[in-house]
Amino acid sequence: MKIRQSFEQAICILLLIGASDSPIKSHELSQKLDISDSYLKKITRQLVVGDLITSKASKLGGFVLKKKLQEISFLDIFEAIEGKEKFIETTHLVEKVFDPNLKVKETEAVIVDYLNTAEEQYKSKLKEITLDHIFKSAHQS
Fold first, then answer.
1. Going by fewer Cβ within 10 Å, which terminus of the chain is more open, N or C?
2. Which H or E run contains 17?
3. What domains are there in the chain, each with its CATH number?
4. In this predicted model, what pLDDT tens digit does every residue of 124-137 receive, in sequence order?
5. pTM for the full predicted model
């Protein structure tokens, strides 16, 4: 599994918004992060749909967080960007590997169980890390 760059970019977008005392416009974010405005809008749209930010439309408007930094976990960001679907959806290829007289279904279940456990551990770890942790670690002297 490879995490897309948009996950890291979403973290940075949220940190920039969270560090600001006022709403931040998308062009300011794209300039600061050196990413195209159109690509940034795709990411911010996912963060809006994921209920992590909101957009205030006005001359002084822009993006603001919907939650406090300590309430936004890496899991929240991951699910906003990557979705909430399970990592593994079996294709039943194991049935083609082993003799049909063996316990093929049970073997497939073992593989899926291991991968599901790995996914649960991964997501559990992401849930432990909040934007506040990152913000505080950057400001330690």
1. C
2. helix 5-19
3. 5-138 (1.10.10.10)
4. 999 999 999 998 88
5. 0.84
